[in-house]
Amino acid sequence: MRHLLIIATLLLATSAQAETPRDFLTRFEKEAGATSSAERGARFFNSKHGDEWSCASCHTEQPTHTGRHAKTNKAIKPLAPAVNAERFTDTARVDKWFRRNCNDTLNRACSAQEKADVIAWLLTLK
Amino acid sequence: MRIHSISSIAALLAALALPAQADNYRVPGNTIVNEECGSCHMVFPPQMLHADSWRAMMSDLPNHFGSDASLDEQRRIAITDFLVAHSGGRKTGVTRDAKGKPLLRISETTRFIKKHREISPAVWKRASIKSAANCSACHTRAAAGDYDDDSIRIPK
Questions:
Q1: Does the beta-carbon distance from B71 to A69 stay under 8 Å?
Q2: Which ipTM score applies to this complex?
Q3: Minimum-distance CB partner of A104 among B68, B71, B131
Q4: What CA–CA distance (Å, rounded) separates B156 from B61?
Q5: What is the residue-level pLDDT of chain A in tens, covering all 126 positions?
Q6: Which of B32, B35, B65, B67 has the most A C-beta neighbours within 10 Å, making it the best mutation to test the interface with A?
Q7: Do B68 and A100 touch (CB under 8 A)?
């Protein structure tokens, strides 16, 4: 019984610290009140939305590859979780980058549906 | 004799130390600065801008040279404090534009312009260089704060 309690506490502690890409997918689907579509995510990622840049402008159309900042040329580590385990594991970072990058590419915040779609697509990339 | 040799060693050391010091822009290590500034561009030496310029820049991060670089308040203040603490004084040259606003680009400071006067506009546009913000393209040891002439290799 005592062991079970210790294991349960450990599990809770780890889940509070590190999140997985699936956790974010679930969170955004819940916020959107709808399931995600990887296909829609791919289209969204690779399209321009009235501004100069699409997501792919910096992250490339194949986000399993290293990207380049469209302005500074600085290397950007791959976005697809399959090749970069650091991606989508930290709420503060995920929220910060969606806030900034959606503003840069769409001139507005992304909807929960758009975020869920993009993550769903990124999770299909190997 | 002993006095003579000590003084000549001292003179030699001073001569060796001076040029290195003049071009020493090593950025003191700071995890938050490296993570936040360094994710989009190289961490520019705080010594290259006046404190007023860093304060002005850090107070308008949602409009950071055309990109949204907004940050939580805690990190924004920590980075501002770091930049101001290590900011340059007279070495940066003129620090304000004609309207009296603090200059935000290192490449607009008189020191930078003077030091790069031999670089033609065509060179700046090369794909291998792309931007005046891409210090490391030519200053091969920029990451270590070394902008000495000896370490310059202008790529084709």
A1: no
A2: 0.81
A3: B68
A4: 34
A5: 566 655 555 555 544 557 999 999 999 999 999 999 999 999 999 999 988 999 999 999 999 999 999 888 889 999 999 999 999 999 999 999 999 999 999 999 999 999 999 999 999 999
A6: B67
A7: yes
- Give the CATH number, domain containing residue A120: 1.10.760.10
Q: A1 lies in a domain? A: no
Contacts of B39 in chain A (CB under 8 A): 74, 76
Q: What is the DSSP string of B71-135?
A: --HHHHHHHHHHHHHT--SGGG---B-TTSPBP--GGGSHHHHHHTTTS-HHHHHSTTT--TT-G
Indicate whether A8 belongs to any domain: no
Q: Could you tell me if residue A41 is inside a domain?
A: yes
The boundaries of the domain holding residue A72 are 19-124
